[in-house]
Amino acid sequence: MLLQITSLDRLIKGLLPNTWSEELLDSLSIVLQLVIISIAFYYLRQFIDRTFEIIVSDKLKERFGYSSPTRIETISTMLRNAAMYLLYFLYGYMVLTLLGFPIGTLLAGAGIAGVAIGFGAQELIRDVINGFFMIFENQFEVGDLISLPGDDITGTVQKVGIRTVELKAASGEIFYIPNSEIRMINNQSRAHRQINIDIPLADDTNIKAFEAVTNRVTQALYEQNQDIIVSDPTVIGIVRGMDQTFLYRITFMVENSAQYKKSGEFYREYILQLQENNINFPSSIYDET
């Protein structure tokens, strides 16, 4: 690289009038070299952007087959960022060398400072490596709802960077988590979700009448929500609750993310129909019956 800068310096000085003073030639050469390097850096950055936007994305689609577009975009962004970091490093190295800073000598003589920087860089390296593993193993992608049990954080993935993951909680809070600190992930967006309807039973509940009503409601809910219910409802029946109480349990398997809204709707329909048929049940499992 130093040889290339020296060659460029000779080329520029060969194009300038040799009647000018050496100081003026050196100054103009440095300015022109900075301009040329900056222009080359600008177009190279545009080329990298374009390459990753079209060519690399297409290659990733071929490599990962039917992976979702968000995953392809995430991988492409991480690779692009790595390429950009390398490009910025080379640009900075060339500019400092051109301005006369002895980069090699500074790096060689860093001593204790170099060791300290090396220890600090270990965390950065762990972040980068862990980030690549999480993405290439498809542990999650942008838009997934995940929880981190070790940090007691749950949120939707907003961005996956080369060093951090950005999560947005339901409260609107934004969390930036270093990749190296992510040990365990619960991805709540990958599989179907189960809704458990647990209806408390009173001691004097007429079980046969209760079951007749709940069976009608279960069938009606299944027919009305076939777009999000993925399998037949399961009537588990009577199960033991807390403090010597009993519950009547019915389960629905639904599409992911539908469980939050539909759980409340299903409970409402069961309660309304039981009330209309004068079937008593405790409003709380702790009520005396």
Give a brief rundown of this model.
This protein is α+β, with helices and mostly antiparallel strands. 53% of the residues lie in helices and 17% in strands.
Detailed description of the structure:
Residues 85-122 form the Mechanosensitive ion channel transmembrane helices 2/3 domain. The protein is α+β, with helices and mostly antiparallel strands. The protein folds into 3 domains: 2-109, Orthogonal Bundle (Helix Hairpins), CATH 1.10.287; 145-187, SH3 type barrels, CATH 2.30.30; 193-276, Alpha-Beta Plaits. It contains 7 helices and 8 strands, in the order αααααββββββαββα. Strand 2 (153-160) and strand 3 (164-168) form a beta hairpin. Helix 1 crosses helix 2 (22-64) and helix 2 packs antiparallel against helix 3. It is rod-shaped.
What is the mean pLDDT?
78
Shape: rod-shaped
In percent terms, what proportion of residues is strand?
A: 15-25%
**How many whole angstroms does the radius of gyration measure?**
32 Å
Give me the strand/helix succession: HHHHHEEEEEEHEEH
Q: State the name of the first-level CATH class of the largest domain.
A: Mainly Alpha
How many helices in DSSP terms?
A: 7
**How many separate domains?**
3
Keywords:
single chain; 289 residues; alpha+beta; Helix Hairpins; SH3 type barrels; Alpha-Beta Plaits; 5-stranded antiparallel β-sheet; 3-stranded antiparallel β-sheet; 53% helix; transmembrane; membrane; transmembrane helix
